[in-house]
Amino acid sequence: MIKLIQNEWMKIFRRTGTYVMIGLLLFVLIVMGGFIKYQDSKGSVPDNSEWKKGLQVQNESYQKELTEMGDAIPPEVKLSYEREIAINEYRIENDLSPNEEYSVWGFLTDTSQMIEFAGLFTIIIAAGIVASEFNWGTIKLLLIRPIKRGKILAAKYLTVLLFGLFMLFILFAFSAILGMALFGFPNEAVPYLNYYDGSVTEQSMLLHLINYFGLKSINMIMLATMAFMISAAFRNSSLAIGLSLFLMFMGGQLTRLIAIKYEWAKYILFANTDLLQYFEGAPMVEGMTIGFSITMIIVYFLLFQAIAFYVFKKRDVAA
Amino acid sequence: MRGEKTMDTLVEIQNVTKTIKVRTIIDSLSFNVNKGEVFGFLGPNGAGKTTTIRMIVGLIGMTSGDIKILGHSIKTDFEQAIKHVGGIVENPEMYKFMSGYQNLVHFARMSQGVTKEKIAETVEFVGLTDRIHDKVKTYSLGMRQRLGLAQCLLHDPKILILDEPTNGLDPAGIREIRDHVRKLAKEKDMAVIVSSHLLSEMEMMCDRIGIIQQGKLIDVQLMTDFVQGNEKIYEIEVEGKEKAGRIVKEMYPDLRVQLTEIGVALPLKRENIPEVIKHLVNQDIHIFGVKEVTKTLEDRFLEVTSQKGELVHD
Q1: Membrane-spanning regions, if any (chain A) (predicted)?
Q2: What's the total number of domains in chain A?
Q3: How far apart are the CA of B231 and the nearest CA of chain A, in angstroms?
Q4: Cβ contacts of B79 on chain A, cutoff 8 Å
Q5: Domains of chain B, earliest start first
Q6: pLDDT at B95 over 50
Q7: What is the residue-averaged pLDDT of chain B?
Q8: Which residue does chain B place closest to A140, by CA atoms?
């Protein structure tokens, strides 16, 4: 199995396209870093003396809106207000200023948006990894080895996951290095304030970011799995890339639209891939729980894999 | 001639049928291939050669029947069966963005016990040592074919399967492949299955041929028997060929008498020649000469396919 993964890895990294993708990722991070640095040096240091008062004012206005709107307020907004209030109160009690200086942590939080970018490249790899063998005609040489088709496909899927991890690692590591070089390390460790189930807890920033990266990459893993499934079942990389990217950009929006009207939207994959909604916002459809979402993700995952393996194992390689 | 199973039998094709939707592509095909022989698979385009070859290597499933390689079924015991097989199916498509050597390393990793020395030895055998570290996209078709051959010899297979191995090659390339194939069969005692629609090439390469038409195996013969057949055609140069033709027809009503430019052509057995000549002379036909007309492989092939083809249609 390790040899098969080695093979797939070799086939990915012998192509120039892969280096272009990595280069693009690094380039975007550098541009982002430069841009933030430029803006940062021009902006004034926030006034730090009166922050407690500011937060109190903020909380009062939140509270006022909550009571004024009453039942008319959307649950999502209500939850985010409550969250803000709780965190602000916690800050005041524990003497934690929100006006910390922009540091490597801030930069890492900003660059985590780039996970979608890394996801896009993983989707491209996933979409090509089976379909390309058919296009190149090499599938005929690949499948007449003393290795079962299922094992070859499994090796390919694991390679996709590894590549995804590799891209995430590059993103995280390069952002960290770049962030430290440009913005430095904060003098004292700043904790992340986590609000879950009505209470606020302090969390180490590093742990929080790893968590954040992990949860955000679920969406990317599911889309890559889908692209892989289309690639294995339909032997068509363009279809796999096209459909997966379309759903990557539109899937969430479409689901949100459907969710306004129909409750069954909660069974759509994209209502469930964003597990952060349970920690930092409100679920897309009322009544959804994190357990439900995890179950749905597993069901979709197994479905994609079942289709991919079933079709790939049965397929007559005729072309 | 289909070949009973013997100790030397490496590949057994047992009553294999393939239907796609309602169309029968391959119809109860059976034959054996033995070690040390080159088995040619001959047939017109679309007869089912490639489909059969792909079924032997497990790329295409079969609807019924079984294929056994050294006694292991390709259906139920794929890994054990296929590990004795090396093959090129149609053109040897390789990863063009990698070097020839990297391609070989790639395939070597997929079989057990292929050492670096073995790779070097195989490269030497096919004569690619000078260019093996160049990218495949810079290779000529002949070099790609050599790399393809190297790829299927890495794991010392007992059976070699080549689908249209000389497609698109120049005469030198064709000869090279042919020499390799003969050498492997004779020296390494491999069983080689080659498919082609090029008769002359098959004639020089194969020991035995199977002819396939419309998915049916219509004949399996030793190459030597096939080319000669059991009867020959004799052309008798005469004056008044119509009359001569009629006389012969009276003697042998079943004989297919053909009129040629200079006389009559008769598919006769050797022992019947004196009798025919005697009869013709008695009837006042002037005979100027008798000569044996050797049938070309092409004649034989068309003959076999059209005869059996008629039978199939009846």
Answers
A1: 12-36, 117-136, 157-185, 205-227, 239-259, 290-312
A2: 1
A3: 40
A4: 146-148
A5: 9-227 (3.40.50.300), 230-294 (3.30.70)
A6: yes
A7: 84
A8: B89
Distance CA B293, CA A24 (A): 73
Domain assignment present for residue A155? The answer is: yes
- Percent of chain B past pLDDT 90, that is, above it, reads 26
Distances (CA, A) of A128 to A125, A277, A300, A316, B39: 5, 31, 21, 19, 38
Query: What residues in A contact B54, CB-CB < 8 Å?
Result: 316-318
ipTM of the complex: 0.80
Indicate whether A24 belongs to any domain. Answer: yes
Q: Which of A66-70, A168-172, A252-256 has the lowest mean pLDDT?
A: A66-70
Domain hosting residue A222, numbered range: 2-37+99-314
CB contact under 8 Å between A14 and B102, yes or no, is yes
pLDDT tens across A218-233, in order? Answer: 888 999 999 999 999 8
Strand-pair category, B72-73 with B64-69: antiparallel
Picking from B78, B98, B110, the nearest residue to A14 by CB comes out as: B98
Cα of first residue to Cα of last residue in chain B, in angstroms, is 24
Which chain B residue has the Cα nearest residue A9? B106
Residue B107 in tokens? 């395939």
Beta bridge partners of B64: B17
Q: What is the rounded CA–CA span in Å between residue B79 and residue B1?
A: 30
Residues 6+ apart with CB under 8 A from B312: B213, B214, B216, B218
Q: From CA B286, how far away is CA B8, in angstroms rounded?
A: 55
CB contact under 8 A, B61 and A314: yes
